[in-house]
Amino acid sequence: MVSGALDISRLDFGGMGGAGTLSGASLSGAYAITPNIAFGASFTRLDFDGSDATSNELFMTFDGTDMSGPFYGRVALGDGDFFSGRYFGVTGGYEFNPGSEAALSLFRSLEDGADETLYLLQFQHSGEMFDVDGRYFGVSNDNFSQLDINFSYAVTPQIDVLADITSFDNGDLVNLGIGSSYEFTDGIAAYAKLNRLTDGSDSINGFGFGITFDMGEGSLKDQNTYERVLRPLYFNEGFPPFI
Question: Is the pTM of this model over 0.85?
Answer without folding.
Answer: no
